[in-house]
Each structure stands twice: as structure tokens, then as C-alpha cells.
């Protein structure tokens, strides 16, 4: 009787991975798993911290490297060479350059012809002041404030810095006209009574009839770009407002609380005193000796001459700058 014999052991050992290789492979897998878990935890904590900071009203700060020598304030002046003499243009440039050099500001001189392609033949050329300011912001992306001032205005007090005269928080808080009808004399839409200087992105004046976009200060940022884009919207340009960009501004400030909530209305004579021949000044809005700016509003009308009206004040300004040297 035969019995099955147990299988014989092979004399050749089966192949196997060395102990050190198995350990190394397992270790790498463990490290990769730990790395993935750590990355996930850090990412979740980062996004949660930003979320709770945003919902609690705290600032979310991003470090921006501002190039040395960047001016805090840029003066924006729009010239229309087709309507102004070369001598007149040079006088305005002299006025702006002197003021900017005294306070470390920069100038952005814009040419109306560079923006006319955005308008049709029926739309007034005055509209292009809006893209001119937008252009200045793109050229000076790290500057904080932009002071747009009409080419028909002179800075008469070169010693006054914009910071001390307007922008310092305590000063701006004292200047803001709160609970004031946006469009005079009795618009039902009024400036916010609870507005503070830290909320402000746009500083402007009004005369006896409207908001006055010939002299305003705007702060660089997302809000200002939004505001300028809304103001220059094709629908507003095609609407045929009687006073073009001025009435468009009246409209959007009254109907868009997002814009009104960032606007400070200040007395006219702070940055926009009218000359004695200018129409529709606010009460007390006509130029007095010592005012920061004189604006020859409407001097380009047929019965008036900007050059003639500006000449005595330009001479007065020259004497002041000479005495300051």
C-alpha cells in the first residue's frame, strides 16, 4: 500500500525583497500621507481665519510693495488744445508744477483728444474728464489720491497742502456737510449723517445748482474704479443729459447708495471757489482772497474769455510764489 509523500521542499529559496527596501517604501508612504494631511489642515485653518476675519469686520491685509518715490497725491488736469492757446496751457502747467513740486505730488496732464474716440459726435467733449482720471490711476497705480482740477482753475495758495487743507481725518470730519441735499437747493436725497472720514473715497463740492465735477478728490481703489466705470457707462453718455457728465453725476449719486455712502460733500470755497463772473455759485461760494482755488466756471462761453479773466489772478499767483522763494 502506497502513501502520498509530503511535497519536498525546494532547494531554491523564493525571491524576496530585502528588509531595508520594504522599510524604505513603507516610510515614504507614511511621510507622503503625513504631508498631505498637514497641507490640508493648514489650508483649512488659513481659509477659516480669513472667513471669520471678514465676517467679523476685521481687515484682510495684503502686503503691497510700493516703489520708493511714489507720490501720495497726483494732480490731474485735462487740456483741450483745440480750444485753448499755447500760452494759456503753459500758464496752467506752471501753476500745477509749482504746487506739486512744493509738496512732493505728481502731475498728470491729459489731452482730451486721446479719449474722444469713446464719444460720438453728439456727446459733449467734457465727458472725457472721466476716462482721464481713470488713465491717471493706471499710470500711478501705487498713489493714493487723485485731485482732478479743471484747466479753467488756478491754485492760488501754494503753501496749502491737500493733506492739511482737506485730507487729514480730523480736518475732513470737520468739513463734511452731513444731511445736506445732494442736488441743491432741496433734493430729497441727502448726504449721510453718520459718515466719517474713514468711510470717504470721493470728496466733492456743489454750486447753486449741481454737484461740481470740475474739482474733486478721489481715492485709488476698487470702489473708485467701480464709480468711474458707472459714471462713464455708455447708457449715461447716450441719455442726453442737459449738462452731460454733471447731470449724470447728480443722477447716480442720488440713485446709487453705494456711491453716496462713500462721498463727502464739502463747502465750495474749500477746493472750488468760483470767480465773480461764474454763474450759479453756492451761497458764499465766490472767491475771496486766501482761498485755495479760483475756478473760472463757464469762461469758455462765447461772451467770455478764459485768458482775460485769468490774467490778473495769474499775476497775483506769480507774486505769491516769488515771495515764497
From TrEMBL:
One of its GO terms (biological process) is protein N-linked glycosylation. It comes from the Eukaryota. GO terms for cellular component: mannan polymerase complex. This is Alpha-1,6-mannosyltransferase subunit. One of its GO terms (molecular function) is alpha-1,6-mannosyltransferase activity. Belongs to the glycosyltransferase 34 family. Coiled coil: none annotated. Keywords: Glycosyltransferase, Membrane, Transferase, Transmembrane, Transmembrane helix. The chain crosses the membrane at residues 31-52. The keyword Membrane applies.
